[in-house]
Amino acid sequence: MIPYPTWLGSGDNAWQMTAATLVGLMSIPALAVLYGGLVQKKWAMNTMMMVFCTFCLTLITWVLWAYKMGFGTPLISSFVGDPRTILGAGALQGQANIPLLNGLMPNFKLPQSSVAYFQFVFAAITPILFIGSVLGRISFRVWVIFVPLWITFAYAVNAFLLWGGGYWAQKGALDFSGGYVIHLAAGVSGFTAAAIVGPRLKKDRERAIPNNLLFVAVGAGILWLGWNGFNGGDPYFASADAAAAVVNTNLATAVSMMVWIFMDMFLSKEKKPTFLGGLNGMICGLVGITPAAGYVNGLGVIVIGVIPCVIVWVAWYTLPKYVWPFNKVDDALGVVYTHGIAGLVGGLMVGLLADPNMIEYLGVGKNSSVSGAGLFYGHPHQLLVQFLAAVTIIVWDALVTAAILFTLKYVFRMKLRLSEEEMEIGDVAVHGEEAYPSDTLISVTAQAAPAPAPAPADKDRPGVGSADGEPAARTP
To answer: How many CB atoms lie within 10 A of CB 89?
Structure first.
């Protein structure tokens, strides 16, 4: 007897499952802890509940129909795949196959289950990311209905267009690990949802103080190192390109984090470095390099570590004050900036910096190697393709997010927002539990005594949220 089918590469499969687990850790516990520490303590349990439930709902949706919509045979031309389950023995243990990519990449040395799970953790983290836009007011019941619908009509379409061999893949658009499919989509959808659901309570926006910065640091660290699987797993092989993508990911992140910190030290009003500012820079680096990780050389990596971070830093401090609609939408943790704008800029920079000498798959015989070439390497058309693919994601995801929420609100008569009383109390009102319980339940004390007056917001301190369109105070 033998343990492996003849087509399976045990090393590739071991790395793929490891990479998928690293990406899964970015959601649970990393984002659960990071977001749970960033919010006010009255919302810590609600935040963690939403993260864990989103992970569950996405997996159920994924295996029942959504995976094949993103990576199966075409259903509607080159726009979306045919929804089918992956529950049978053949679907789990058979050789992986993405029909429209046959002949365009090496044959998989992986079972379908490895590819399906790897792509699931990517799907799950996307709505988990934009939970950060609507914290502190969206109805939990609405959210658990919204997630499967969004995965079906937004994410699966994004994945098919760019990764499943669909329209933009056929036009040559490059998105190594999800700068568009994940981060731009999360930024756009989160911002749209925040605009439709409405803002948090005024006093919560004015005093949006993290409840546990040590938890934030733990979540941020797991998120950073988990990104090794995020970008390193995307070639589907334990290859030289995968190793380069891991190094590129960490270098861009290190550069970007320090750029934000230095900008805070020398250009902000207070001239002080802060951990939360560094965290924003870290995320900008991770997101900015994601669409480019296996396509750019080390010099391109450093440029990507600088440019998206600088653009997001400027946007963070100017758009919420002066530019519509950013000055009207309460994006609680600033997802549209650190994910939406950073993902967009990173994707466009692929069109400039993709190096044809960074080879993803080596050509054999008459087959040419697979790589990308940007404007600076003699291929200006790549920038146009990157731009048009981004516009497609922005328009489609905004429309789908709005359509789902308006349908739930006006057709099914669901209240998108929690009541004023529930928003005042928080976790105890919504879930009957709290992260930091005391002898007297917060619900009792909230009803028995008036809430303390909110302290003035220090709106020039760098944080990870926005209040009335301005950066929220995030330090005690």
So the answer is: 7
